[in-house]
Amino acid sequence: MKVILLQDIKALGKKGELAEVSEGYGRNYLLPKKLAKEANAQAMNEYRNAENSKNFKIASAKAEAEKSKQALEGKILRMKANGNNGRLFGSVTSKQIAEEIRKQYGINVDKRKVVLDRDIKEFGTYKAEVKLYTGISAMIDVQVGEA
Fold first, then answer.
1. Same domain, 35 and 88
2. Are strands 114-116 and 124-133 parallel, antiparallel or unpaired?
3. What per-residue confidence (pLDDT) applies to 65?
4. In whole angstroms, what is the distance from residue 48 CA to residue 32 CA?
5. Contact of 30 with 40, CB cutoff 8 Å
6. For position 132, what pLDDT does the model report?
7. pTM for this one?
8. How many whole angstroms separate alpha carbon 102 and alpha carbon 76?
9. Would strands 2-5 and 114-116 be described as parallel, antiparallel, or unpaired?
10. What is the CATH number for 123?
11. Count of the separate structural domains present in the chain
């Protein structure tokens, strides 16, 4: 019997997946406990629509990430910071870099997605990786100058 899972079930599958189970397991355990619903015509149609919707969202997110990558790849992000004698007062963080990307390029980036190869504690140019989506990232140069 085919069922669509309504909750994650260990050794069977995750919520929203289609699973093949024995007749007794489905009728006596999964259906009465509302862990799954029978995969009839209406349920299968809803399942296909949900899968298509999920695939469309993933495709549009990837396309948006590719577009953002093209806009950011190889660009120089110029930032101003306070300091003297070549040293900063504090450091430039990934949060500040993410905010500056939003200001200069209009691309929203989560601060956790900005990866620096080392801490920025001095004036100069540094490399940073901006992770936009799984497997899609852009390398930018961060140029820190005196304010």
1. no
2. antiparallel
3. 93
4. 24
5. no
6. 93
7. 0.72
8. 14
9. unpaired
10. 3.10.430.100
11. 2
The last residue of one of the domains, among 63, 89, 112, is 63
Task: Output the pLDDT for position 93.
Answer: 92
pLDDT at 127: 93
Last-in-domain residue among 13, 41, 63: 63
For 45-48, the CB contacts below 8 A with 24+ separation are 47/4, 47/16, 47/18
Same domain as 98, residue 47:
no
CB 71 within 8 A of CB 104: no
Residues in the chain where the model's pLDDT stays below 70: none
Q: Give me the numbers of helices (H) and strands (E) for the chain, helices first please.
A: 3, 10
CATH of residue 48's domain is 3.40.5.10
State the pLDDT at residue 116: 92
pLDDT in the model for residue 147: 79
| Residue 28, C-beta contacts closer than 8 angstroms, at least 6 positions apart | none
Q: Can you give the pLDDT at residue 146? A: 87
Q: What's residue 83's pLDDT?
A: 86
Residue 72 CA to its chain's centroid (Å): 17
Domain extent, residue 15, equals 2-63
Residue by residue, DSSP assigns 50-75 as HHHHHHHHHHHHHHHHHHHHHHHTT-
- Does 26 share its domain with 71? no
The answer to whether 131 touches 72, Cβ cutoff 8 Å, is: no
Q: Is the domain of 97 the same as that of 137?
A: yes
